[in-house]
Amino acid sequence: MGRRRRTRESRPRSEPPRGRRRAAARFGGPVVTPLPEPARAAASSVRPAVRAPAGKGAPASVRGASIGPGQLRDGSSFRKQADMTLLVLLVQVALPLTLLAWIAVYPAGSLAGFVFQAAGVASFLYALARVSQWAVPVWWLPWVYGALWLIVVGLWTPRIVRAGARLLPEGAWGWAGLALSSALLIAGAWYGARAIAARSLPPVEVVDIANPFGPGDYLVGHGGSNRLMNGHLRTLDPEVARFRPWRGQSYAVDFFGLGPWGLRASGWRPADPAAYAIFGAELRAPCAGRVVAAEGARPDFEVPNEDPVNRLGNHVILRCGTAEIVLAHMRQGSVTVAAGDAVAVGDRLGEVGNSGASTEPHLHIHAQRPAREGAPPISGAPLALRIDGRFLVRGDRLSGAQE
User: Low complexity: which segments have biased composition (predicted)?
Assistant: First the structure.
């Protein structure tokens, strides 16, 4: 790749780890894979931020502030998070346990009824495992549900066969159970198929980059090629005017951190951003290029406060070849590069924070074409990302680069 160039404004940086130097040969600039057809029109929505200096253990908190330039939206965020907590408990905890209890305590009395009951519950649990965000409660909980299903079905199957159960259900309750099982089977199959389909590359160009993380383990919260798995895709609608300034982020990937026991935080939803595993995680340049924008002075907010005006918060935008790579919601005071700096693969960029329109610490990363002159910085045409050769979808895990 040759000797690294340093512009007049560049700051000294330490050499990348040895493994990163090898990666530079591959990711000297992002590999853009064009499609035979033109890319779809898209739209985008990230979020930029504001704040006063705050260190890792001292997040800014402005409660009850009205919405305005550089101000926080607070009350509605707390209500929304309370609603989401209730939804998680109902859908991702109570509902799976209820279905498992149903098959364990009230197995169908006929062969057809039991087969459909077992298959319906399995199908629904699989779809739930693929579609839901499992950063909360914990990413491995669907595996526990799967193990419980195997135990229950394994215990009941030989008993029902030995008992010589009739083939078809009898009575209204028997047929009602079969109908419910069939509905679960169909719903699970449909949502499961949509989750699998999200692994297909979208009809846009694809940018290959290196892993942007330092050491650690990370979970994809949003990612994939359909709206079921990637909430950013709602911004592909060109008819919605408020999405147009953010259209570049339509195929973005959001990451949470995984700490001890696979938990994303020390607590259910602690207010202190430093309690989250990803807060302070090292970020490195995923491609060789030049910094076109960098900001590092905006505050990290207490959860779930956010800045709906400065949506990107602290961020770095890299120009690598013909594409731009955007890393958003970085930690205040951690950004180590400035506009005009040349970077090599593996150069330190900063740390993950909770600045901008971020209701809890996470990394937002996306690829786009450069925006038109005078247009908002992330309004360029959206591109898809492959990280270390993987097109990541919700629920995937990624290990950071080792030293």
Answer: 38-54
289 DSSP 8-state letter: E
And the tokens for 143? 């595996």
SS3 category, 358? coil
Say if CB 208 and CB 389 are below 8 A apart: yes
Instruction: Tokens for 11, please give them.
Output: 């700051």
**What are the phi and psi torsion angles at 153 (to 5°)?**
-65, -40
Placement of tokens 């560049």 in the chain: 10
Helix (H, G, I), strand (E, B) or coil at 316: strand
DSSP assignments along 1-45, one per residue: --SPP--TTPPP-PPPPHHHHHHHHH-SS-EEE--SSPPPP----
Domain boundaries 18-77+201-399, corresponding CATH code: 2.70.70.10
Q: How is 180-236 classified by DSSP, letter by letter?
A: HHHHHHHHHHHHHHHHHHTTSPPSS-EEEE---B-SSEEEEEE-SSSTTT-GGGGGG
- What confidence tier does 18 reach under pLDDT thresholds 50, 70, 90? very low
- What does the alpha-carbon distance between residue 282 and residue 335 come to, in Å, rounded to a whole number? 10
Q: Alpha carbon of 106 to those of 98, 179, 269, 318: distances in Å? A: 11, 15, 36, 58
The alpha carbons of the chain give a radius of gyration, in whole angstroms, of 24
- pTM (2 decimals)? 0.82
CA distance 88 to 136: 8
Instruction: Burial-class residue 271 by CB neighbours within 10 Å (0-12, 13-18, 19+).
Output: middle
User: Domain residue spans in the chain?
Assistant: 18-77+201-399, 84-197
**What is the H or E stretch that residue 75 is in?**
helix 75-88
Percent of the chain surpassing pLDDT 70: 80
**DSSP code per residue over 85-101:** HHHHIIIIIIHHHHHHH
DSSP single-letter state for residue 249: G
- List pLDDT tens digits, range 43-69: 333 333 333 333 444 444 433 333 334
